[in-house]
Amino acid sequence: MKTSIYLFILSTCFVAGVSSCAKKFDLIPPDGIIRENYWQTKEQVHAAVIGCYASLMDGGSSATTRGPAETFFIWGEIRADMVTPSLGTRAEENEIFNISTQQNNTLVDWRPIYNIINYCNTVLDYAPSVLQKDQTFTQEALNGYLAEVKALRALMYFYLVRSFGDVPLKLKSTASDEDIVQLAKSTQQEVLAQIVKDLAEAEPNAVTTYGDVRDKGRITRNTINTIQADVALWMENYPAAIAACDKVIGSRRFGLIASSAAWYNTLYRTGNSNESIFEIQFNQQKLNPFFNMHALAATRRYIAANRVMDQIFTTELNLFTGAPDIRSNGASVRAEDNAIWKYIGTNNEDMIAQADSYTHWFFYRYADVLLMKAEALAQIDGRGSEALELVTQVRNRALAPEATNNNPDITNKEELSLYILEERAREFAFEGKRWYDVLRYVKKNNYSNIAYLQEMVAGIVPASSVRTAQAKMLDYNSHYFPIYFYELQTNKQLVQNPFYKQ
Description:
This protein is mainly α. It is built from 21 helices and ten strands.
């Protein structure tokens, strides 16, 4: 695959844990200059690591470029059942909505993610040499930096493997567009094994805290444990998922933000709360892409599907049973027009201005740890009651009404699993998790729940396409994206996902 020519290196200082000058990057030239002149001091290593995080902000609010945060939203949401097209939806987005994605669809271009991987690989390749050049640079400091970029690389590969299945496993850096590496795909199992390895190696060397707000925007040991739990769930290794969650819970560094008038602002708009584990810290200098995606009725690309308020939050039932779930109207969605509110509201009523579009993107929150542990416990005989207690913690914070309490049988693994899946839909609405949650639920136990996915697509596509869409879902390769045609042209080692072969 082709990689970016330059490695972003942050030029100066921090705000919100990443940068106060997010628009000012030194561009380190390729090849020999990187090797010979750049990697000299611990400050340069530090800047390179921060550059890896800054690359998560690429694209921003530009209408012509797609950055990682936009990619994470698209890949994690528009194949599922909580987002639907709007007036500004583009043709290539409608392809995905209609389960007819083609290999020339730019939304399946994985380069924004492989660019970040390459930045991480560059640090891993060159930072160790600085130990011999800067006598003030310690092995402990180096190990900490390497832990961060290994974990970030693992997280990026986790997005790729869940989105594409088999993908190239690139573990060495390339410095220029002329240095094209011909790599065949590795199997999903091989990529997952590398992810597990990277996380295991990173965990003991990662810091537990940076002592300030950087804990939310940089990877800590708790971040690594949370990713480990997510990976273990995907791999159906439930004891490992529980163990990883217990490390985060046992750290006593996190909690659920209590329901109050300030709940929405504290958790989403302001960010960096006690509930956050890892987030992209957009700010006034580096805006997020979400205003253009969700705010203005005439141009918004996505809105919430009707089922979000009607079925997921059961709003109509709640009219007669008391206060609604605090995560529903004025938090996840604006009920009057189904606008996706989580990224465009200043509170439950007022919309942000475009110049203030810096609500953070969340990779993980503490609620995720509780619900991941519950999901794993639900698969272990005799631990259903523990799973239910964790779900109840999350529901109680949200003031979830009884209308969404299915009272699952704690001895019935399938009832508990479905209950947790539905709760995750409410808790993480539009946070880029829905498709991955559904696919994880569907594929466990050798795709024992494939009927759930068939029922889901029946509610998404036009009525005339339901049978075709449901038939497609029976081919497990259809659950993953095609490889973008450009990658196939430039890397002759790649083979297209069988479902999309022409």
